[in-house]
Design brief:
Blueprint lengths: L3 E5 L12 H13 L4 E4 L11 H15 L5 E4 L5 H14 L3 E5 L8 H14 L4 E5 L1 H4 L5 H7 L5 E6 L4 H11 L4 E4 L2 H9 L4 E4 L6 H12 L3 H17 L7 H9 L19 H11 L4
Parallel strand pairs: 1-2, 1-8, 2-3, 3-4, 4-5, 5-6, 6-7, 7-8
Length: about 290
């Protein structure tokens, strides 16, 4: 249903943490102009944990309005509360989002049966297309392939963002579920290989900074052109690596500020990138061509 380079959009903020919708409009225009294939609003990179429910819904509504049909909008609506996830997913559907991205419940550590029932309940409550999101490094919760296979039989569960970076697992998901749902990378460093193996795209942090290059790399990988994909990806490797020197989205927001695209605002408990990492991230920006 969705494919290619899907940016995990940051949520621009003023000093003090208020959402800056003028800068958000600038970012949406930046991505439309550079052929980003879909915009993911209010995911992890969009600081979803510290936005109130009202802010969360407002950001989704405004991004849908700003995109104005020029790029699909996928709304992050996951929660460790099933009822809250249903409420956010309903809000996204009402706002006109094209799909929702639902992270595994974090902190409360459900069983695999609990995960199945959680995602099934959301899918049955809200008819919008839904993409599962597995990122155990953040959530302490791993959505196992056999549970994904069970969920793949639910008609409006259309994809999974697999962010473990485990290519063997991703290939198994493609083999076992690929006819029923799309498999997306949630790990920029291994995204190219996943797409060459049959994955449909990447929900990308790097795309915030280099949207055209990420779009072109994904297009090459999807058509099976390894040489072209590798040529582009090689240039992006410093960003794939150094945008995780501190917890995402700290480095990518600092990098976007360095590029003059957003203010430096970020919400506690996250803080601005530590000064001792500035040279490393700035060097990655220059090596990739994001900054002259």
């Amino acid at each position: 249903m969705f494919h290619g380079s899907m940016v995990a959009l940051v949520t621009p903020m003023r000093e003090g943490g208020a959402v800056d919708f003028d800068e958000m409009q600038r970012l949406v225009e930046f991505h439309v102009a550079n052929d980003t294939d879909a915009i993911v609003a209010v995911g992890t990179t969009g600081e979803s944990p510290t936005l109130s429910e009202a802010e969360h819904c407002e950001v989704i509504r405004r991004v849908v309005e700003m995109a104005a049909g020029r790029a699909p909008v996928i709304a992050g609506t996951g929660s460790n509360s099933t009822q809250e996830a249903i409420a956010l997913t309903r809000c996204a559907m009402a706002a006109g989002a094209d799909a929702c991205l639902l992270v595994t419940p974090y902190y409360n550590k459900p069983t695999q049966e609990g995960l199945y029932q959680h995602f099934k309940a959301i899918a049955e409550a809200v008819a919008i297309p839904q993409i599962l999101y597995n990122v155990p490094g953040r959530t302490a919760c791993d959505l196992l392939p056999e549970t994904v296979e069970r969920l793949s039989h639910i008609s409006n569960i259309v994809g999974i963002k697999e962010a473990t970076g485990d290519l063997d697992r991703a290939r198994a998901l493609i083999d076992n579920c690929g006819e029923r749902l799309d498999v997306y990378s949630g790990d920029d460093a291994t995204a190219m290989e996943l797409m060459l193996a049959g994955g449909k795209g990447v929900i990308s942090v790097t795309a915030n900074l280099m949207p055209r290059a990420m779009h072109d790399m994904c297009a090459a990988a999807q058509r099976g052109d390894r040489a072209a994909a590798e040529s582009i990806n090689q240039r992006l490797l410093p960003l794939h690596r150094d945008l995780y020197v501190e917890a995402n989205p700290i480095p990518v927001k600092w990098a976007l500020h360095e590029m003059g695209l957003i203010s430096p605002g970020i919400r506690l408990p996250l803080t601005v990138l530590s000064e001792n990492h500035h040279d490393m991230v700035r060097r990655a920006l220059r090596e990739s061509g994001a900054l002259q």
